[in-house]
């Protein structure tokens, strides 16, 4: 089955996307998927199977793994234990490959990055050693999250109690040109979602006709570009409303909308309620 592409939208003012799930909920995207970001997954306990590229790896007491960009995988959580916890930390290539690479102190981390492109699973001893960091990182402020994450990377890059999951970096069924195009789209939307973005603009950016671009995006992600854009923008609106610093009108303009009725319609479609009602609930 061909994997669908997922866009990882990092919260405003942060370098990482951190999600925490319990036995009563799970990751929204539970199908076979792929994304250009790195991902570290901590599963506290319980049993299950890791589906990564062509491998299925069983576990019986939780798991800790790191996978590099564009490795097909499914969700990793389970619901065996009432106290189970899954923490997913995702971060872009530029964070690890560009920003951290300028510091000589991160030499071991650079090696970890290379190994993760074949997927890494860590022994139970490593998982237990970093368990407190994973179980508290989601409750920290953005700066503390980054500090805790740097400590996790240090510990993961310093251990030999791990093994790679794949024999080689997997070859994706999509062409490198298509992968680059999709990353370009995601990066542009991440950086310019507050501005006017049209299908024609993105098509031109990629050197495609509008019709060709629409077919390309649908093939790669399973959804239309306009649907994706509105979903991305309304998620950003939720982030801003959660901060309780901005009015609904300010959030609307910040997220690239200038028509209140259209903003309300799209927010309700993607978030299940209107922005005014959501803002009142978080007030």
Keywords:
283 residues, alpha+beta, Jelly Rolls, Arc Repressor Mutant, subunit A, 2 domains, 6-stranded antiparallel sheet, 12 helices, 16% strand, globular
Task: Briefly summarize what is shown.
The chain is of the alpha+beta class and 283 residues long. The protein folds into two domains: 161 residues, Sandwich (Jelly Rolls); 107 residues, Arc Repressor Mutant, subunit A, CATH 1.10.10.
CATH fold group of the largest domain: Jelly Rolls
- Averaged pLDDT: 85
Give a count of the beta strands, DSSP E runs of length 2 or more: 10
- What is the CATH C-level name of the largest domain? Mainly Beta
The first-to-last residue Cα distance is 44 Å
The SS-based structural class is: alpha+beta
Number of domains: 2
Number of helices: 12
CATH superfamily of the largest domain: Jelly Rolls
As a whole number of angstroms, the C-alpha radius of gyration is 20 Å
Strand order of the largest sheet: 2-8-4-7-9-10
Unreliable sequence segments: none
Q: How does the overall form come out from the CA principal axes?
A: globular
Q: What's the order of the H and E elements?
A: EEEEEEEEHHEHHHEHHHHHHH
**Proportion of residues in helical segments:** 40-55%
Largest sheet: 6 strands, antiparallel
Give the CATH architecture of the largest domain.
Sandwich
Structure in words:
With about 280 residues, the protein is an alpha+beta fold. It has two domains: about 5-165, Sandwich (Jelly Rolls); about 175-280, Arc Repressor Mutant, subunit A (Orthogonal Bundle). The chain has twelve helices and ten strands. Strands 2-8-4-7-9-10 form a six-stranded antiparallel sheet. The chain has a two-stranded parallel sheet with strand order 1-3. A hairpin with a 2-residue loop joins strand 5 and strand 6 (about 55-60).
